[in-house]
Design brief:
Structural class: alpha/beta
Radius of gyration: 22 Å
CATH superfamily of the largest domain: Type I PLP-dependent aspartate aminotransferase-like (Major domain)
Oligomer: single chain
CATH topology of the largest domain: Aspartate Aminotransferase, domain 2
Helix content: 40-55%
Strand content: 5-15%
Largest sheet: 7 strands, mixed
Number of strands: 13
Strand order of the largest sheet: 2-8-7-6-5-3-4
Shape: globular
Order of helices and strands: HHHEHHHEHEHEHEHEHEEHHEEHEEEH
Amino acid sequence: MGQGTLGSFAAPLFGAGLLTSWEAIGLDNPQNKTEAYWDLVKSQFNLAEGLHYFNNASLGASSTHIQQATNTFRNLLDGFPSKYMWGGWEDEKEEVRRKVANLFSVSPEEIALTHNTTEGMNLIARSFDLNPGDEVILADHEHASGTIPWEVWQETKGITLVRPELPILPKTVSDLVEVYEKAITPKTKVISMCHIVNTNGMVLPVKQVSKMAHEKGILVAVDGAQSAGMFTIDLRDLNCDFYTASSHKWLFSPKGVGIFYAKKESQDFLKPLIVARGHTDTSIRRLENYNTRNLPEVLGLGASIDFHHIIGGERIHQRTFELKKYFRSKLEGDSRFTIKTPALDDLSGAIQVVEVNGQDVKDVKEQLWDRYGIDCRPMSSKGLNALRLSFAIYITKKDIDYLVAALKALAA
């Protein structure tokens, strides 16, 4: 299988061929904002029959186009393994890097293509040569994959992990900024924070914290697992030093692909988790030098970003907050429910958490699945006792109506 075959298969996946197929079904129409349009988007996801999937914050689905693109790359690899594993796809891999960089408004030389958020957090936490007594701030809503790397790689050396408590329902962004401000001391070296917490969907003030931290010579690392793809993100504007994300959630990429951003000025702090031949590379590519890896999934990430762009980043951004407000309006004033996610758009997006008052969340979750085929995540930590509901772009208002009707039936 030669380069001619690569041209006939791979080029449409990255270029005009795939665009034409999406034009044919109308996904690229920037003026179409009707519910019928979002029904069309939903039709691109082949979810199991009878499943009502509100659990995207755990794991996203890939559209059929993304699956097809990835499978085509798998077939090419198996047709000529050594060619495509080691060198045959260098240009395609760099094209994926450029697409990721463009999505986040940064340079391709600031993007590494990794496996997931957990890898990125380990890469950051293991890199620093901190001294006993130095402090790293990790608020109490951080994901385990964002805290354990710091515990293993730094706390065992005598570094202090400072764990301030975040309010569950802050009224303003300043309420959250103040928590970090009070936690900073002259010994603080790094602030590691989620962009969106996985517990109740709060958006944390990365931009404001980064500004405050940099004024004091403190670095900021961001766990972007729940934000990448949900809404528009300009990493230059956020001004954090590092940002790591799993693209298999809100970008719907193949599973086991991640995105790692390191500001050019902050890259010298980082050390690769894995070293192999080529470890002397001074570019950000040294952080993804695994030798053999699953390249079809990496290239499938390129198709997922194509899918994101065809629908339109701004339209996805607007839809995120439209669905959030629609859902909240359906429960507003109903004393049987307590929404435990902040209401302001600056403080939450497509993850909303709701308690069915007086009922154990695990029981409610089981009943939703057994009686209605609704999959979501029960959240018991932080006293939430609430369902975590994800409104990805394949969720329609009809889906939310179905969900709300089920919740009200259980509440009755």
